[in-house]
Structure formats: C-alpha cells, structure tokens
C-alpha cells in the first residue's frame, strides 16, 4: 500500500476536511519599533505540549486550566465517559456529556462534584480561551472524545473508543487534528474482534445445546452488560434476561434513554429455586462469578464478554467456558484504521500496549510516542 | 473447517469430562463422513501430516508481517498456532466481511467526517444528533459510519502489499459466498498428496480463506499435537456413546482401523456389521480390579484367591503377532515408539499383560528403579539411545492373553498363570520377568504382608480369583486391588486458587507447605498442591476460611494467613515422594490429596520439611 508522504497529503487523499485555518502570525510585524526588538508581538503557533501535558494528576491543559479524566481530585475536570478509571468523584467542577454526568450521579450519588456543566456533543465552548468540543466516541452511552484547540493547535483526546456498530451508543466521530491521543488497550495485532453477531450466535447456540444449564455472562456493569442485552434483543431473543443487582441502576438508565433492553428480571433466589434459571441467560459483573452469588445456579456455563477472550489461554486461566469476544475498545484494525483515517500530525498513545502501536505508526511514517498516564486499568473493558 | 474449529474451541475450554463427550457426540451427529473421522483421528493423534512443519508456518508469516510486531504478539499469546491464527491478514471469513465490514469494502464514497470546529457560538453547524435525542433505530443506522478500506485490516505492520487483483476479490462479496466452505477432509486429503514444497502454499491459501478460529484449527491440525485436553480414550468413549456401544469394543477394533473410520461410523450408526478385526497385534481391552472395601474379604475364602504385588509403574500390553510388535498403554494408546528397547526384545508370538518399569541390573535379575527414574521414560514420543541405556525399561508380566494364535482369555487365571510362567521363562530376563505370587493362608496374614512390602514401588496387593476368566472392565468379585495406606503429613494451607467449571465460585485448589528454619524464625516452604479429597461441605468451610483470611490476591490465586499461631492445617495423604530440582522444597509428592482438615491443630504443630526428607531417605 502507498503511504502518502504527509499528513496533509493523506488528509486530502481521503477528502478529509482541512482543519480550519486560524491565522497564525509566523513572522515579526513591523509594529514593534523601528528595527528594534524583533518580535514583541510575534505569535507563534502553540506547541502541543503547551496545550496538553501530563502532570501528577493526569492530562492537564495549562491555558485552559483543566484536566481531562484526572485520576486525582482537581478543581476542573473534563470527563470522557463514566467508567470509574476515567470518571472519579470529588472534583470541583466536572464537564461531561449529560449521560456521563447522569452515570456519575448514579454511581457516586448526586454530590459527586461541586459543580457540573453539560457538554453538548459537537458544540464548541470556550474554557479560559481554549476551544473545547465533545464528540461521540462509540465506547459506551455518553462517551465522548474531547477536542481542545488554541492558537492553531488542535488535540483530540479520544478517551476509550471503538468503531463498530453498537446499539447502545452513538458512533465514533473522527475529527482531523494535529495530535490524536489514542488508547491502546488492544494494541497488538492479535486482537481482532470478530463480528458481534457471530459472538451472540455462539451464546445462543450454547443455550440451545445445554438447555438444562444456566448461561452466566460476565460483563462490565457500565456499557458491556447493556450492549450484550441489546445485541441479544437485536437478534430477536425475547425471553426475560436475568441480571445481577449491580446492573440494575445502569440498565434502568439505559432503558430510560431509549436503549431496547426488553424484559429484565433480578437474578435472585426468590425468583425461583435452583432450577428456575435452567436454560436462561444471566448477566452479571465478572467479579460476581468468583463470588458466592454464583452458587445459586445449577451447573452454570461461565461466559465472559470481553476483548481479552480472543486469546484462549486467557479464557482458560479465568475458568471461562464460553468466551464471547465483545469489546467496547477498538481492536488492532480499528486502532490502525482510525489513525490512518484521521491522519494526525502526531499520535500520543495511552493505557495499553503502547509499544506495538508506536511501532506501527513508525512503519506508517507517523510520529508517535507513549503518554505515560498512570491509573488506567489494563483490564478495563 | 468451521464445525471442526468450533469443536476445538469448545473442547479447549470445557472442563467437565461429560461436557467434552457431549460436544464430540454432537459433532459426530452433525458432521458427515469423512470429516468427522478425520476430526476424531486428529484428537486421538492418529493423523500424521508430514508435508508442513511449524518452521514453514513462521516463514509464511514473516513474508507478510513486521517481525517485531509478530515477536511481541507471540510473546503475548505464547502458542505459535494461535498467534499466527490471530495475526494472519486473511481475506477473512466471509461472515466477517459481510456482517461487519461489508460497508467498508463497498464504499467508494469517502466517509462523512465531523465538520471542523467553528467559532464558538456559531449555531449553523450541522451537528451530530446526540444519542439520547435519537431513537434506537436511528442510532443503529447511524452506526454505519464506514471506515476506509485501506485502513481496516491492512495494517501497515504488514509489509508486503497485496496484488490489486486480490483486493478486488475481497471487495466483491458475491464471489466469497459462492465459494464452497473449506472442508476438513479437503485439507487432510490434499495435504496427504502434497509434496513438501507444495504444502506451505496450500496452507497459505487456506489461511487466507479461513477466519481466526478456522486458522487456529488448521494450524493445530497440521502442526500436530492438538493439546486440547482430550485423551484418545475420551474420544473413544465419546464414539461409544455416539453409537450406543461398549468402549472396549471400539478399543479392540481401533488399531485395525484407519482414518476416516467410515466403516466404524457405519457400524456405530447401525448401517453395517461390526468391522472385522483386521490388524495384527491388536490391543485387547484390559481387565481391572475393584478396590477392597470394608468387610469385602471376610465373605470370601482366601483359598480361592492368588495374591501378587501391585507394582507402581504403568500398566501395558506387549503384543507380538504375525511379525507385528506393539506396546500399548492400558487405554490402548500405542506407545511402541517410546520403548524401542522393549520392542526389540519381544521375540515371541503372544500378548502379555504386565507392568512397565525401569530397572537396573541387580544380583538376582532386574532390580526396580524409582518412580522418578521411570518418569524419565514416560510421556515421550521417542527416546534417545543414551536415555534408553540409562533408564532401561522392562515388563513385569502379570498375565498371558494370547499365545501361538490361540486366545487364552477364556481360561481361568490359574491356567493362564501356568502358561505365563512357562512363557516368560523363555524370554530375555533383562526385559521380561514374572510378577511373583505372594503365598498366604489367611486374610490376616496377607494384611500383614501388605503393610510391609519387600521393596519400593509397590502400591499394595492384587487379589485375583483363581478361576477368573479375563474380561474387559471391572467384573465384581474377580480381582481386587488392596493398596497400602498412604503416607500422611500435616501441612499448612498457603495459597488457594479458584476452581473450574462447577467449582468456579470456590477456592478449591490448595498449595500447602511445611515449616523450615529455627523455632524463632519459622518459615513455610510449599511442598505440594491438592484439589480433592474433601467433601462438598468441607469445601465450603475451606472456601470461607480462604475468603476470611486472604492476605494478597494474584489473579485467581489468593495467599492466606499462614503463621505459626494462625492458619489452617491440612492432613495431606500421598503415595510417594521423590527428590525434585524443580520444586523449591526439593521434594515432589505423588498423588497428594487432602485426607482431613485439622481445624483442631495450630499451624506450628504441622510437620517440618525434615520429616519429608527423612521419608525420602527411606525411599518410599
């Protein structure tokens, strides 16, 4: 394949809109006194590191004086999505999409921040002179990328994202930029998530094969659980689906937002004896399966919906009998395709397998470096 | 390949034996000949494909992919077949393209992108509708945001560019769906005819056509050794269940059959007569003993029984007939290749049932070497001359099943024993000897002998009815095994690991240790791991103890409080002890299990490592 020489060439080759021209004064003006002092009014384009850099609390924007997804409490935080390693309680002010704010409220209670501000996707607001735009990231309901721009430098913080269809959230919206900050959770060429339909088909085939057993599907409480349920509904599975108590609030919220989850029942023993769950699908957080909670089910088939399930040994180690390769993170192909599509001037890589994606960028002629952010969970899904 | 791939996938991850059998039975029902026969042969290890070697597979990947990225991938996954299956840039499964990415391939129009940022406050921008404002269906439609074809799946880590023509093929979905799916039998039969130079090209083409699971199955198939946790015996058990036949009938036939076993399936499905036993030197399903239970012996007359030592090697059948020599394990696996020294010495016409042991020449014939010496010879496909000389194998004969063309199994044990004694006396004595009978007059006398066996590597006694005919399985009352009491020590629970399958919500695998160091600086050294021997009730109690006393977690493993004053003491029973360089403690237990939970004991009362070392000195 031809690799176009420059980012600009790549952009035009794909009909990507050119990023907006902000007039940059690249030369000294003549208003600075006759021949004296070269550039008192010189405005040079902002350097990326001046717009965003890592400090002890996370990713910080000095001109805007805010953090993005900080791991410790800060006065002002912009939050990409509601997963707990990105959205933490106790900040002074939080700006996020309405759904993300709602989710944080559900998880941490209404007082999770002193002040909140709703960010409307694709609408640009100024924060201390920095233009900030939230864009859908396709990760979970309410998830957003955050574009920050000042003086001709635009950085897109993708947060966590994926590119495939998801009935529970809006799709990723690519935006041209100078620096694209990408996650790399599945940043190795071995991670290629198969089509969702195939994985849901595997689950339903197993339910048909083992009608006397209970299929326990481990899925993270925010996003994955609702996606699994919505995918089952999409292919016409209309039996009640039993859910662990930890999923109740979020499933209720998703349903209220118009995501079709169909009939959900609590997976409590009062719902019936041991036999009551035979042939049924029960969805719960993965941690619950190691717990005594799981003992109420007779001879369960343990399933786990996660991108990690691509590697058999990982599934085996976890004691998973039926791995479902369903991920809310971009797989290797999606990561590389997204970078190729956006064609940023530079790529910064966070949490995951930075080195492989960096290597890929090098081979593709795109400058890239890892951004060492602590605090994000490797296992986060 | 798809059904076979799906079968492998499920087998790898299904812990229960019955679950595995069910998967194989269903596969045989749903899959036509000859595919199912080849699949069974792949599982039983009876399929040899010689035209492709693992190094060739690596070379194929290296042609297509950046080696650094491949190296990291291999490091992460740890299995060559699986790594290649996952990183391979195939045309992929038809489904993959059609369901998920079809829109990419067919899209000639560049994808719509979010418009560039406008100045703040400008409301004329055509904004993306936010999910909450759109209905679910709208949202699903909106999901069609396509990706450019070049980006997807053609990662630049792959250096070799694809010829344009291939990309075109990829784009036209119609062509893919009309191509018939690749069958397992096509792969096996084509490779069997292929030369070493054609093999890799064929494989390359198939890898391109298959999806990741199909590629994994293909690579496992051709590189040999599925290692999916299914023994040949279990596969035969599944065939027996599939056909509603007895497994011994299948074991008996097995070595006269060859893949794809169409005549076997015809019989199992009731469409044909049982295939004739065609092979020379077939395996004859073995006769097994029942354990002696309380009160069993009192009802029996000692005069009806012969006793002999139960040797702790591996039970084998040495068969030489019509010029064919084979050594079988007790489940009918042909292990001849690993024991050429025994095979060479099989200058006879007959079938011996006996125990394979490793020996050292002694003053009175062969002396039995330790179990760890025997282990040097086990689980090998082949053996070097040096190893065979260092650890010479021999067979201690128990029974004679066939001799000079006549089947001796219908004869009573006493008669067979007489023939055996005579038969063995004419064999080379460094490779064959007779398992001696242990004379006794009363059960009391033999019980005393059981507790004081004359050497190591004796597990206990066998009691055989003098008039018993040789039949497969465990007929009641004919043969008994009477094992000596196991050795026991008190150890302290150190780590607990979550179980699998039914036990996945329990901490059910226990690592235990014994004390070392001086009294004021006691430390625990792990000496073994056990995951059975306790009741369900006891399991619940240990599980609770583990959860209440967790010190640290490492994935599925927890370390638990284990101090001289606080912890759980386990009485561990085991069959033997060997020196081990692989274990920190320097000892390895055979067959350890939890005998009792000593809630009554405090950890400092548990045994010390010296106790085990003393046992070693006595050569258990």
Which regions of chain B have little confidence, pLDDT < 50, spanning 5+ residues? 92-177
Number of strands of chain A: 19
Structural class of chain B: alpha+beta
Give the overall pLDDT of chain B as a whole number: 81
User: How big is the Rg of chain A?
Assistant: 23 Å
Rough outline of chain A? globular
Rg of chain B, rounded, reads 31 Å
The amount of helix of chain A comes to: 10-25%
Summarize the helix and strand pattern of chain A as letters: HHEEEEEHEEEEEEHEHEHEEEHEHEHE
Q: What is the count of DSSP helices of chain A, taking H or I runs of 4+ residues?
A: 9
Helix content of chain B: 25-40%
Q: Structural class, judged by helices and strands of chain A?
A: alpha/beta
**Quaternary:** heterodimer
Strand order of the largest sheet of chain A: 7-8-9-10-11-18-19
Shape of chain B: globular
Major sheet of chain B: size, sense and barrel closure? 7 strands, mixed
Could you describe the 3D structure shown?
By secondary structure, chain A is α/β, with parallel strands linked by helices. Chain A contains 9 helices and 19 strands. In chain B, helix 1 (2-13) crosses helix 13 and helix 2 (17-30) crosses helix 14 (232-243). The two termini of chain B are 50 Å apart. Chain B is 36% helix and 21% strand. In chain B, strand 7 and strand 8 form a beta hairpin. Chain B is an alpha+beta fold. Chains A and B meet through strand 7, strand 8, helix 4, helix 7 and helix 8 of A and helix 1, helix 5, helix 6, helix 7 and helix 8 of B.
Outline of the structure:
The complex is a heterodimer of chains A (381) and B (620). With 381 residues, chain A is an alpha/beta fold.
């Amino acid at each position: 394949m031809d690799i176009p020489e420059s980012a600009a060439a790549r952009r035009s080759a794909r009909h990507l809109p050119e990023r907006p021209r902000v007039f940059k004064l690249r030369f000294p003006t003549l208003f600075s006194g006759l021949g004296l002092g070269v550039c008192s009014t010189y405005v040079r384009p902002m350097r990326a590191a001046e717009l965003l850099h890592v400090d002890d609390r996370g990713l910080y924007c000095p001109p805007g004086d805010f953090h993005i997804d900080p791991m410790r409490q800060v006065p002002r935080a912009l939050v990409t999505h509601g997963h707990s390693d990105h959205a933490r309680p106790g900040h002074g002010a939080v700006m996020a999409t309405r759904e993300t704010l709602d989710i944080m409220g559900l998880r941490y209670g209404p007082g999770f921040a002193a002040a909140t501000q709703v960010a409307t996707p694709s609408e640009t607001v100024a924060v201390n002179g920095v233009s900030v735009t939230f864009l859908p990231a396709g990760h979970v309901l309410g998830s957003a990328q955050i574009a920050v721009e000042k003086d001709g430098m635009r950085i897109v913080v993708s947060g966590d994202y994926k590119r495939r269809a998801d009935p529970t959230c809006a799709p990723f919206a690519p935006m041209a930029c100078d620096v694209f900050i990408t996650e790399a959770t599945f940043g190795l060429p071995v991670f290629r998530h198969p089509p969702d339909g195939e994985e849901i088909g595997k689950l339903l085939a197993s339910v048909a094969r083992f009608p006397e057993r209970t299929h326990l599907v481990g899925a993270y409480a925010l996003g994955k659980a609702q996606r699994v349920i919505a995918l089952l509904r999409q292919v016409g599975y209309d039996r009640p689906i039993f859910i662990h108590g930890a999923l109740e609030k979020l499933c209720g919220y998703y349903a209220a937002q118009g995501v079709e989850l169909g009939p959900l029942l609590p997976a409590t023993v009062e719902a019936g004896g041991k036999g009551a769950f035979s042939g049924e699908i029960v969805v719960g957080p993965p941690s619950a399966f190691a717990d005594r909670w799981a003992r109420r089910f007779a001879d369960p088939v343990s399933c786990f919906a996660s991108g990690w399930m691509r590697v058999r040994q990982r599934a085996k180690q976890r004691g998973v009998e039926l791995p479902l390769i369903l991920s809310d993170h971009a797989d290797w192909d999606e990561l590389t395709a997204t970078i190729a599509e956006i064609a940023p001037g530079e790529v910064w890589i966070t949490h995951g397998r930075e080195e492989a994606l960096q290597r890929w960028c090098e081979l593709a002629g795109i400058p890239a470096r890892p951004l060492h952010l602590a605090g994000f969970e490797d296992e986060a899904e | 390949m798809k059904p076979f791939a799906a079968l492998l996938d499920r087998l790898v991850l299904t812990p229960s034996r019955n679950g595995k059998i069910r998967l194989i039975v269903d596969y045989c029902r749903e899959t036509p000949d000859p595919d199912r026969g080849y699949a069974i042969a792949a599982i039983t290890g009876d399929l040899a494909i010689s035209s492709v070697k693992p190094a060739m597979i690596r070379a194929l990947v290296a042609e297509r992919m950046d080696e650094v990225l491949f190296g990291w991938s291999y490091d992460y996954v740890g299995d060559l077949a699986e790594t290649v299956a996952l990183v391979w840039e195939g045309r992929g499964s038809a489904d993959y393209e059609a369901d998920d990415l079809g829109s990419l391939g067919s899209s000639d129009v560049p994808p719509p992108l979010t418009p560039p940022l406008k100045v703040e406050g400008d409301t004329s921008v055509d904004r993306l509708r936010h999910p909450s404002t759109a209905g679910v269906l709208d949202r699903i439609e909106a999901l069609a945001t396509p990706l450019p074809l070049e980006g997807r799946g053609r990662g630049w880590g792959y250096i070799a560019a694809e010829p344009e023509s291939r990309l075109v093929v990829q784009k036209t979905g119609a062509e893919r769906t009309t191509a018939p799916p690749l069958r397992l039998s096509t792969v096996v039969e084509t490779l069997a005819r292929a030369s070493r130079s054609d093999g890799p090209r064929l494989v390359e083409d198939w890898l391109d056509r298959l999806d990741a699971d199909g590629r994994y199955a293909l690579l496992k198939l051709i590189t040999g050794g599925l290692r999916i946790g299914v023994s040949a015996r279990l596969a035969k058990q599944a065939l027996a269940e599939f056909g509603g036949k007895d497994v011994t009938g299948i074991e008996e036939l097995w070595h006269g059959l060859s893949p794809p076993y169409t005549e076997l399936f015809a019989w199992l499905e009731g469409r044909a007569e049982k295939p004739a036993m065609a092979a020379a030197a077939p395996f004859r399903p073995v006769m097994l003993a029942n354990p002696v239970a309380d009160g069993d012996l009192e009802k029996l007359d000692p005069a009806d029984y012969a006793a002999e030592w139960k040797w702790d090697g591996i039970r084998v059948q040495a068969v030489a007939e019509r010029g064919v020599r084979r050594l079988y394990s007790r489940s009918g696996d042909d292990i001849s290749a690993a024991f050429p020294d025994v095979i060479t010495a099989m200058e006879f016409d007959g079938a011996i049932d006996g125990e394979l042991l490793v020996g050292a020449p002694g003053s009175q014939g062969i002396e039995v070497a330790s179990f760890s010496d025997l282990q040097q010879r086990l689980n090998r496909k082949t053996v070097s001359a040096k190893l065979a000389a260092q650890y010479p194998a021999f067979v201690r004969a128990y029974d004679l099943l066939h001799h000079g063309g006549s089947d001796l199994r219908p004869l009573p044990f006493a008669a067979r024993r007489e023939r055996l004694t005579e038969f063995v006396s004419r064999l080379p004595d460094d490779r064959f000897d007779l398992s001696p009978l242990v004379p006794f007059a009363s059960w009391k006398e033999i019980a005393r002998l059981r507790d004081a066996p004359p050497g190591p590597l004796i597990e206990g006694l066998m009691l055989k009815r003098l008039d018993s005919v040789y039949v497969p399985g465990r007929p009641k009352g004919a043969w008994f095994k009477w094992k000596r009491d196991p050795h026991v020590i008190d150890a302290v629970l150190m780590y607990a690991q979550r179980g699998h399958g039914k036990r996945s919500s329990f901490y059910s695998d226990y690592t235990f240790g014994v004390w070392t160091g001086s009294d004021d600086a006691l430390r625990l050294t792990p000496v073994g791991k056990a995951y059975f021997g306790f009741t369900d009730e006891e399991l619940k109690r240990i599980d609770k103890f583990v959860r209440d006393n967790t010190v640290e977690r490492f994935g599925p493993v927890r370390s638990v409080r284990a101090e001289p004053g606080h912890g759980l003491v386990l009485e561990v029973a085991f069959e033997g002890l060997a020196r081990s360089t692989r274990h920190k403690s320097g000892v390895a237990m055979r067959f350890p299990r939890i005998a009792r939970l000593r809630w009554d004991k405090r950890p400092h009362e548990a045994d010390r490592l010296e106790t085990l070392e003393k046992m070693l000195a006595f050569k258990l």
